[in-house]
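ok, trying the design again with the full structure, not the truncated one.
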């Protein structure tokens, strides 16, 4: 390594160490965040190295991240994106590609999804002129069931796109089986569930395609970022085209003529030999991430197993500490799953002698951060009011979630002291003793 660069990286590590002052936990004063990026000196050095090398666009670190992450999650291909939302857009849009011929999704086709969740699991359905079919979820797991999904299948149903709620797997083996029986595509929004397993198998590996987010609240952070994963090479090619402006060519930026046919194609009504680099076979975007993001991702990836372990440990401590507290629905792992938790959801019983708002106010007043279970019932938001969609069954639990549910953190930076303070605070408010 160049001496100047070596010095910069050494100084970066020292700078990081300088910033690590001992900060004792002060109950009620120290912020207990619900989520956040956990970044160490190696992460800081990785970012600085990518910056001093001026790797400002997608490049070799992005490719390395994609192949390491695909291997880690048991897929043949991963495509890095600028967010989890972009990953969802690409994942769903891939099924509208003309390359799938009569298997492609067409406007008016239906996609089963849940009403209580994150908006950008659903938005790609609407964006593509498809119809979301909303079903309810269970309280406690915050996931839907295979039975609910089965009831929602109609003559135009062509796909299922659902997120594993707060890291807790939905009944993904059964829903994958259902998808196979009814010839439906299955898209797993795995943004909140990296490292979770169902029947001992990683979530994100059951469906046709899966997505991940690297926004700071998530298991791995790139600041902003996301990923589309699949083992279907035809789909991977479509995702790449959609992500990279819609182009037909698969040369990396800076590469030319890998196929040795760059000036030999004839496509559309273009003249013979039109430069393949500029032939567009999809209505695409540019949703790539940069090598600066990928460098951070690579450094974070080394710590993924530890992060997932800490999330499981923290969730278990909260779960055991709050067990038996009245008036609260405590979270439950879906049967046969081992979640790599994103958060710890609490639902205040509708007939409790206190409101969710009062409990949340009390916790926030003690610097214990809370978050809503994202949108609650999406169909009640202004953006969805006049959209075409179908609802199957009642959305009773989604409505309860809208009114009564919130979640607190389990992310790796939380200490036992903090978690015990959270437990004691909830018990104090509820009047359950400590
Ligand atoms: C389930 C789910 N899907 C998708 C996303 C979107 O990810 P991003 O914020 O990276 O766009 C999120 C974000 O938190 C999410 O929780």
């Amino acid at each position: 390594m160049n001496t100047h660069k070596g010095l910069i990286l050494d100084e970066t590590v020292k700078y990081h160490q300088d910033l690590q002052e001992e900060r004792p936990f002060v109950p009620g004063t120290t912020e207990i965040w619900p989520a956040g990026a956990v970044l160490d000196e190696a992460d800081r050095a990785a970012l600085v190295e990518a910056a001093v090398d001026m790797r400002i666009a997608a490049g070799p670190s992005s490719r390395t991240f994609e192949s390491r992450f695909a291997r880690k999650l048991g897929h043949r291909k991963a495509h890095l994106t600028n967010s989890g939302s972009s990953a969802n857009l690409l994942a769903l849009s891939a099924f509208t590609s003309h390359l799938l011929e009569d298997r492609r999704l067409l406007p008016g086709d239906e996609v089963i999804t849940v009403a209580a969740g994150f908006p950008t699991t659903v938005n790609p359905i609407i964006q593509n002129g498809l119809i979301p079919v909303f079903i309810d979820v269970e309280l406690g797991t915050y996931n839907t069931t295979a039975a609910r999904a089965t009831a929602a299948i109609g003559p135009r149903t062509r796909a299922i796109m659902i997120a594993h709620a707060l890291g807790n797997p939905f009944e993904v083996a059964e829903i994958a089986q259902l998808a196979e029986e009814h010839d439906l595509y299955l898209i797993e929004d795995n943004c909140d569930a990296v490292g979770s397993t169902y029947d001992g198998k990683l979530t994100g590996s059951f469906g046709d395609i899966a997505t991940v987010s690297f926004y700071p609240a998530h298991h791995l952070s790139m600041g902003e970022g996301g990923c589309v994963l699949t083992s279907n090479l035809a789909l991977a090619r479509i995702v790449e085209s959609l992500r990279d402006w819609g182009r037909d060519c698969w040369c990396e930026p800076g590469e030319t003529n890998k196929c040795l046919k760059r000036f030999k194609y004839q496509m559309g009504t273009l003249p013979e030999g039109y430069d393949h680099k500029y032939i567009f076979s999809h209505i695409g975007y540019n949703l790539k991430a940069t090598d600066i993001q990928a460098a951070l991702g690579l450094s974070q990836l080394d710590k993924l197993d530890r992060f997932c372990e800490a999330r499981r440990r923290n969730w278990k401590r909260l779960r055991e500490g709050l067990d038996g507290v009245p008036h609260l629905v405590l979270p439950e792992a879906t049967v046969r799953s081992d979640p790599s938790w994103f958060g710890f959801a609490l639902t205040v019983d509708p007939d409790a002698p206190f409101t969710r708002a009062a409990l949340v106010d009390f916790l926030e007043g003690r610097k214990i951060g809370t978050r809503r279970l994202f949108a609650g019932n999406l169909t009640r938001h202004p953006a969805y009011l006049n959209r075409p969609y179908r609802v199957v069954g009642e959305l009773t639990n989604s409505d309860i979630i809208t009114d009564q549910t919130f979640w607190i953190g389990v992310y790796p930076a939380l200490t036992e002291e903090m978690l015990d303070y959270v437990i004691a605070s909830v018990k104090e408010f509820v009047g359950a003793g400590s």
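Keeping the full-length input from now on. The chain has a mean pLDDT of 97.
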